[in-house]
Amino acid sequence: MSLPATKPVYDRVALIGLGLIASSMFWAIQRAGLAGEVTGYARSETTRDTARRIGLCDRICDSAAEAVEGADLVVLCVPVGAMGQVAAEIAPALKPGATLSDVGSVKRHVIETVSPHVPEGVHFVPSHPLAGTEHSGPESGFAELFQNRWCLLVPVEDTEPSAVMRLRRFWEGMGANVDEMEADHHDLVLAVTSHTPHLIAYTMVGVADDLRRVTDSEVIKYSAAGFRDFTRIAASDPTMWRDIFLTNKTATLEILGRFTEELFALQRAIRTGDGQHLFDYFTRTRAIRRGIIEAGQDTSAPDFGRGAKGKA
Amino acid sequence: MSLPATKPVYDRVALIGLGLIASSMFWAIQRAGLAGEVTGYARSETTRDTARRIGLCDRICDSAAEAVEGADLVVLCVPVGAMGQVAAEIAPALKPGATLSDVGSVKRHVIETVSPHVPEGVHFVPSHPLAGTEHSGPESGFAELFQNRWCLLVPVEDTEPSAVMRLRRFWEGMGANVDEMEADHHDLVLAVTSHTPHLIAYTMVGVADDLRRVTDSEVIKYSAAGFRDFTRIAASDPTMWRDIFLTNKTATLEILGRFTEELFALQRAIRTGDGQHLFDYFTRTRAIRRGIIEAGQDTSAPDFGRGAKGKA
Q1: Which end of chain A is more exposed for a tag (fewer CB within 10 A), N or C?
Q2: What is the mean pLDDT of residues B228-249?
Q3: In CATH, which of 1.10.3660.10, 1.20.120.140, 1.10.3210.10, 1.10.4080.10 is domain A185-294?
């Protein structure tokens, strides 16, 4: 697992933004020997200092332009709402023939805001690794984050196939499974499997926090499996998630509409005492769980919502 | 951890219903030597056969009345909706001076339906261990389930304090922390920390299953952290959860009302592009998470929604 690949996929890789994803990418790149050199840049001086202190990236630069200079692959790892501005900033420094990519959780918006800045001769290949934890920042990364996770490539029109193939090899080298998907479909799928669930978890934790008759300490002390999982989800980075909802507005609002429709039907079943409706609904949802386990995307080991799996 | 206690807390314990909780209780009782003999009964013959095959309980009986005969502690471990009927069935066979308890997730309803059947001289002490996994059935239990989890005792009026104390020692012997709480407050707290989150998770998984433009295989393949956690929650026992919602109707509907109110406010912020509202909300919910970790009810180890914690 820690053996370097026979030869690097890119001579030089630049990571712009040094949070959970970029820092995990660096450790995964290093582990597999996927790049000759990795440069890094973060807007915050504190983040750059931290990166230098923990040895994140071969070289931390004090400007984005400096970091991308001469890079064969530039990956934007900033919140979705900042992608356009960062692309504008680095565009003049991009090397002809380089590949520009990103790791944003929303793809249509990134394509719309980044594409206008991509110089002639630079290959723009948006991507989205479906991997993460509830932690954020340069110290939260680790080489195994992408292992057996999916990374979706969302090539724009007329992208050079060889640039896509090379990026695919790069992500595979970091342990990911790679698929290609169209941007709007990506945004809809993610609204279902990630964005709406996050919004719902944030909402439920907020409700608990608001409820004055149930004290905060009771909510914390007696947090059972359901709620505890929600608090973990709702501990994710606020800036990243604000940007996701603002930029994947249409799909999120559509899925939210479907969600409230179903929720009201279940609420009505509770109010009218329709046990059959509840039972049938709860039985049906078990099948999806089985599918996820069979697809190797989760284990059937019992979870206590408290990390006891490794100990049990 | 596997050393027996100096002496049993009860000479004979009867477990009625042999699912996740009862089977975990048996292994925990056995591990700590908390009872001289444990009898068990389940309505389904298949379950009784399985229990006999795996050595669950010292003796499996073919009727509930036989199982409770001579027992010093009888614990009802059936779905909340079945408690009253089972109590009626065993009442004539209960030993004078015995303690009757249950492990239901809703307490007001259990008290209302069980109390009328409790014979004079039998101590009724409702309880609720806040522990579980997404698995169910007699083979899903394990001795560590209650370790460091809370068990809430909800004594009814005029309960003999010595009976409550003894049940407390019993649960502590199984590894649980024990608190007492009033029934209605219990039902409200649990509506927040467990019941409503489960309903929401079931709903979201149902929505994903319904959505024809996103195929099931895509939902499964690309299930990211948020949704994957929801599918685990939504894999819980349908009968148990149907009963919980039907019997904790008032509190669940109240919390659902608060939830949709907040959700609509966030939905509106997305629609109007109010990033500040979203950011503030998402920042506030992080504090509760920290509290839960500080209270030792979860770990800060990153979770991937796929049981990788123990491996990382």
Answers
A1: N
A2: 90
A3: 1.10.3660.10
